[in-house]
Amino acid sequence: MQKVNICLIRGLSATNTSYFVQRARSFSSHVTLYKEGCCANGKDLMEVLDLDVRFGDHVTVMTEGEDESHAIVALVALLSGS
Prior knowledge:
The protein has helices spanning 14-25, 45-50, 68-79, and strands at 2-5, 30-35, 38-41, 58-64. It has 82 residues and is of the alpha+beta class.
């Protein structure tokens, strides 16, 4: 589990969310995104969009599974704009 500050100028807009979900789906691990007490399956486009993640928001990414360490590094890097 890792907290991240969203540094994407448009936050998780439709395009950025689509890219995030595609990247999350490339891993076998379960991916969960948390924002202000709400959570979303990181592999479900509509659930992630419903979180309404914007520039400057703080979210928590949790990965569980076989490749969780690789998944969290890649997804946090994406969200932080690295």
